[in-house]
UniProtKB/TrEMBL annotation:
Organism this protein belongs to: Sphingomonas colocasiae
Name of this chain's protein: tRNA modification GTPase MnmE
Quaternary context: Homodimer. Heterotetramer of two MnmE and two MnmG subunits.
Sequence positions that bind GTP: 224-229, 243-249
Predominant subcellular localization, coarse grouping: cytoplasm
Gene3D superfamilies given in the database record: P-loop containing nucleotide triphosphate hydrolases, Probable tRNA modification gtpase trme, domain 1, tRNA modification GTPase MnmE domain 2
Localisation: Cytoplasm
SMART domains: AAA
Keywords tagged on the record: Cytoplasm, GTP-binding, Hydrolase, Magnesium, Metal-binding, Nucleotide-binding, Potassium, tRNA processing
Gene name as annotated: mnmE
Domain TrmE-type G: 214-357
E.C. code: 3.6.-.-
Length: 429
């Protein structure tokens, strides 16, 4: 396998820049630059020189991690440089001139860690989510998965499945032997049922997609109801154009933001009404209704009770523009809000957070992504077929359940899926 190198820290200029080198030629490359290999896992201050002409490149801290006890599972070197553009560019140019070294692509270091058994696929997915985390809730959930919490749970299920499978095989192959005294078939089926119920509990947890993408909140109502003004007030910036002219908003505007550490996507849209015959306006209204149908929460800013097409369980009624004359008193179950004065906004945010907390995982709780959920469902389905009194069918069902869990952690998988995952990572990770 080739030796790869890349800048693994943020783009320069910066106080420091970290360049990583991983592969069988990492040691010779480090020796060529630094003149020696430092004590493993202990930082050493050296002057880096270009192997081509001996020119000094930078005074840097270098670290040496012999494989397999490294982040990638192979020989790994790190160069901690001054973070100027010229310094980084010159060091990368020197590395490019060393035989056997190639620039890394997106996710190459993490992929090598996976291929060399340093992390499994679930941990890699958690690391990917951690890199993209923007809220505290996302960070804590991703950190739990990247740290192996999900993998540890799957490993426990795998051990239990193997134990049940071994006992079934013993009954099948050696039931006529006097020294084989396995548990009765009923007990094996009970063990499978208990495991199936545990997996059911995990499948009932909130999905990772909602945590990753945010709770979708549609601001809906008739034209000039104050939707754009409210969106700007909640976002804390001018994200949408505000005008007294009806029909200003025609397209869908999405604004991601965090409220109390929870991820949300606020969606402004065209006002909902019967239409005026304008073709473009009609398209905007149709898009708005589609967004409302797909949203997790609806903020209804209309004075009437609600749109008859809405799901009332998803709707929070908002009495907007409560500062205007004649609008001081709203409907009993509506949250009175003045986006201009700021009154009522904290009450509305509290209501949004309360709704979101019922849809999102608890802090630090593992949230399964769609791939993981699909494989757990496959495992659960196989266990559901394990209630046959036929030992051969029971053994086959347990084998299929084990295969699903193997694919969850990456013991079995497809190259295409791996390419898609690691391609999300940045170069140098």
């Amino acid at each position: 396998m080739t030796t790869i190198y890349a800048l693994s820290s943020g783009a320069p200029p910066a106080a420091l820049a970290v360049v990583r080198i991983s592969g069988m030629s990492a040691g010779p490359a480090l020796r060529a630059l630094a003149g020696r290999l430092p004590v493993p896992r202990r930082a050493g201050l050296v002057t880096l020189r270009d192997p081509a002409d001996g020119e000094a490149l930078d005074q840097a801290l270098v670290l040496w991690f012999p494989g397999p006890a490294s982040a990638t599972g192979e020989d790994l070197a790190e160069l901690h440089l001054h973070g100027g553009r010229a310094v980084v560019a010159r060091v990368l140019s020197a590395l490019a001139g060393i035989d056997g070294l190639l620039p890394a692509g997106p996710g190459d270091f993490t992929r090598r860690a996976f291929e060399n058994g340093r992390i499994d696929l679930a941990e890699a997915e958690g690391l990917s989510d951690l890199l993209f985390a923007e809220t505290e809730l996302q960070r804590r959930s991703a950190l739990a998965v990247a740290g192996g919490a999900l993998s540890a749970q799957v490993s426990q299920w795998q051990d239990r499945l193997l134990m049940i499978s071994a006992q079934v095989e013993a009954l099948l192959d050696f039931s006529d032997e006097d020294d084989v005294t396995g548990p009765e078939e009923g007990r094996l089926q009970n063990d499978a049922v208990a495991l199936s119920r545990e997996i059911d509990d995990w499948l009932m947890r909130p999905s990772g997609e909602r945590l990753r993408d945010g709770v979708r909140v549609a601001l809906a109502g008739p034209p000039n109801a104050g939707k754009s003004t409210l969106l700007n007030a909640l976002a804390g910036r001018e994200a949408a154009i505000v005008s007294p002219r009806a029909g200003t908003t025609r397209d869908v505007i999405e604004v991601p933001l965090a409220l109390a550490g929870r991820p949300f996507v606020l969606i402004d849209m065209a006002g909902l009404h019967e239409g005026t015959g304008d073709e473009i306006e009609a398209v905007g209204i149709e898009r708005a209704r589609q967004v409302v149908a797909e949203s997790d929460i609806i903020l209804w800013l209309g004075d009437e009770a609600t749109d008859p097409a809405f799901d009332s369980a998803r709707t929070i009624r908002v009495h907007a523009r409560a500062d205007l004359p004649g609008r001081e008193i709203g409907v009993d179950d509506a949250v009175a809000v003045s986006a201009m004065e700021g009154s009522g906004l904290s009450t509305l945010v509290d209501a949004l957070i309360a709704r979101a907390d019922a849809m999102l995982p608890r802090p630090g709780e593992i949230a399964l992504n769609q791939r993981q959920r699909d494989l757990l469902r496959e495992c659960r389905s196989a266990l559901g077929s394990a209630f046959s009194t036929d030992l051969l069918l029971l053994a086959e069902s347990l084998r299929l359940a084990r295969m699903a869990l193997d694919r969850l952690t990456g013991r079995a998988g497809t190259e295409q899926m791996l390419d898609a995952l690691f391609g999300r990572f940045c170069i140098g990770k």
